Amino acid sequence: MRIFKQLLQDEFGAILSAEAVVIGTIAVIGVSVGLNAASKSVNAELFEFASAIRHLDQSYSVSKVEIDGDWTAGSAYTQPDVKKSMKELEKSYLKEQKEVEEKLQQLQKELIEREKEAEEQETPRKKRRKKQRDESKI
């Protein structure tokens, strides 16, 4: 506990605002890259699951049933070609993946621009130091 109090009172290792922005930026980029990787993994697994479900043949056929003069009509369903529907599914998956990657790149560019703007701005601490240097010269 004593060490923690000393750390709070210590001003020799204070972080400047620009340094805090840089550290925050690195953390945000790291988190966004990590989430992007997790998102891609989840999407890939869901795509594989959808592919497995789609490959199940759901076609059926029930013939006419007649008992003591009463009857019901038969029924049938033939599933469309699996290869065709898989191509459509893959096409939509790739389109959505491309959109997500473009959005991520846009956000990363905005983050870098904000970081540059923050570095260019003078912090209050820098202003005080500059003022103190100017006063000491007089």
Automatic annotation (TrEMBL):
TM spans (from-to): 12-35
Region (Disordered): 113-138
The name this protein goes by in its record: Uncharacterized protein
Keywords attached to this entry: Membrane, Transmembrane, Transmembrane helix
